[in-house]
Amino acid sequence: MIVILSHHYDVQKKIQLELDAFIQAHGRLPTFEERDQVPYIIAVQKECMRYKPTTSFGIPHVANNDLVVRDYFFPKGSVLVSNMFGMHMNSDIYSDPEIFKPERFLNNIRTMSSAANGNVNQRDHFNFGWGRRTCPGIYLAEAEMFHIFIRIFANASIVPSLDGDSKEVPIDMEVGLDTGGVNLPHPYQKDTELRLAMPSHVMQKIQIDDDDDNSENMKFIFCMTTNPDETATTSAKATLGDKRQIILAIATIISASIGLRYLFFAKKDMTSKQRFKDIPTPRQQWPIVGHLLSLGQHPGYTVAKWSKELGPIIQLKMGVQTWFVISDPALAQEIFMIHGVATSDRPSHTFLTYYSHGKRGITCSDADKRWKQARAAALSILSPQRVNEFTGVLMYEADALVEQLVSRSQADGQVDPAPYVQNAAMNFILTTCFATRINSVEDQRFKNIREHAIAGLKLAGTEGDLYQFFPYISALEVLLGKKRMYRDFIANSSDPLFTRLIKDALSSDKDSMVKTLMALKDEHDLDDEDVLVVMCDLFGGGSDTSSVSISWMIVILSHHPDVQKKIQAELDAFTQIHGRIPTFEERDQVPYLIAVQKECMRYKPLITFHLPHVASRDLVVRDYFIPKGTVLETNMIGLHMDPDIYPDPETFKPERFLNNTRTMSSSANGNVNQRDLFIFGWGRRICPGIYLAEVEIFHIFVRIFANASIAAPLDGGGKEVPIDMDAILDTGVSYLPQPYQVRFIPRSVSPLK
């Protein structure tokens, strides 16, 4: 970066103007969390790394089995290497790649770690590798570079060195030193000088002498700028072997002098609350209970209305607790992603503490070391590669569901799809996780598990632990037997159920995810209780997500026969060519179907709030002060009905997603401005099972419309009665449609016939 920018004084001036504007407004340098306020600096940093990538090639991979990608055959043992120069000088990716042009990144302030782990078509550059081998230290590297970068240009300018006649000698950017792994600028030749112009109040005289005249040397000249016409210079010679130490010393001095000042102002900012933005509070609150009695029958919709009136973040008083509810995705991303270390814990909830055996697992635990180990194990067993190994099972369950819906509808005229959808969603998890399934909704096991799930969801909701809002009456929790009820539910219902499922799966000769998790126990330092809670988490999250989503999709599309016809026409076209229905890997060939699926999940999100986070320390985000202990929530209704994100949000319009067939898991982990939906969470707490959920929903969706059409139920006179989409059943955690009947009419013209 130093070499490149010594050739671009105009770029340095723009950087310094941007920094000066920030400093005038805030009285300090920007932090990495505030990079959105210095977009040109971020653009320059990214363009430098593109223009002169740190490596010529990525560290090589090797194929451990034969594979075919895009009809290219890769034999086992092939060494696979990515060419950094070829990629970063590709004119199809970067227009005018030979030109140093920071403006190409000007509207892109997302972190490089977010870009590297997101959609490949949205990546900034490719220095940090690919897939499972993506560099784990991206965030650390970019934060380091950011702090050095801003401190250099807040205090100095970089200019070429001078020759013996005091004439500037540009550094040759075409001469590089290949160390074998990293590309460095070639050592500057004898008498090549790098001159930093910096304010005298920042640096005093620095003298570094080396009298070894037998070696090549490099000179640095530090030019004081108290008076532009009158500079004091100090020469410093160093052997080439000491060059790095000198550069490090310079960076350290700059960082130390400015860093102390920054820390002072940062501390002052944290303690001077009068400087922070006000977080508005809805007026509908009562003494002692706060807003608890004002949330209405459907709190998500009430809070969405308040957010629309008051702004992107609002403050609720929930008994003794303070809740901040966020309805702006960029702000939520900053709070939960950039400040994720401080915002990923869970607030206290008595039932969930019992359920998780003292905050174990991945859903209810604080973001501590044990949680990291459990989450890493869960990500392994829920990876796309692992999920794809169960494709046959997932297709079978989707086929079975559609056959049941159509046959019951034909037999009875119309059908309540809820139990069949729940059974299918349950079987998706039971077969993949525990190598078992339930054949019928009449099976007593299905009824028992369903009753268990409904009871657990109710207890896990906000109403299941009102004492968290009023701890001074917690004695009633003991007197009324609440804690005993929680303990009994876990000891006599939940734990025995899942212990038996795990035991049967481990003794089965069939593959299952719990076997994989057990094999990872030692690697991730897990015990049997950890495994039990993780598998409970996967069952609850996995079965609920797909069943609620499918239930809403059926209701919504019963109102839109025109949309169904377009889906069917798209499927028919695919089937006529291939003689079969599409797989998930072929979703780019059915873009309208994908668009409808995403629009259904936006239009009626399965949850109105995520599981809450809590701030583990004081922090400041965008000049909002968030005290330690604050409960942090995102409102799904507010986010998915925001006209700034989704134009005309009250209208069901699949076309808004028509050119976006990327997976929802890719979207959720990519640029927040490119996200499809927000139901899968944020940052370190993002749902680890997104890929499994969307594959399940896809297979069901395809099979329903390849075989049938959905129609509203009929009344006694044979007249269609539209299903009420505003009739909602609050289960405590998720929002379901109220029980309904619907007709599945077999398609007589399906190419599958």
Round the mean pLDDT to the nearest integer and report it.
83
Structurally, how many domains make up the residues? 2
Described by the principal axes of the CA atoms, the overall outline is globular
Helix content: 40-55%
Structural class: alpha+beta
Strand tally is 22
Radius of gyration: 30 Å
Residue ranges: pLDDT <50 for 5 or more in a row? 188-273
CATH class of the largest domain: Mainly Alpha
CATH superfamily of the largest domain: Cytochrome P450
Range of strand content: 5-15%
**Biggest sheet: strands side by side, in what order?**
5-10-11-12
Number of helical segments with 4 or more residues: 25
Cα distance, first to last residue? 63 Å
Task: Indicate the CATH topology of the largest domain.
Answer: Cytochrome p450
CATH architecture of the largest domain, by name, is Orthogonal Bundle
Major β-sheet profile:
4 strands, mixed
What does this structure look like?
With 753 residues, the chain is α+β, with helices and mostly antiparallel strands. The protein is built from 25 helices and 22 strands. A 4-stranded mixed sheet has the order 5-10-11-12. A 4-stranded mixed sheet has the order 13-14-18-15. Strands 1-4 form a two-stranded antiparallel sheet.
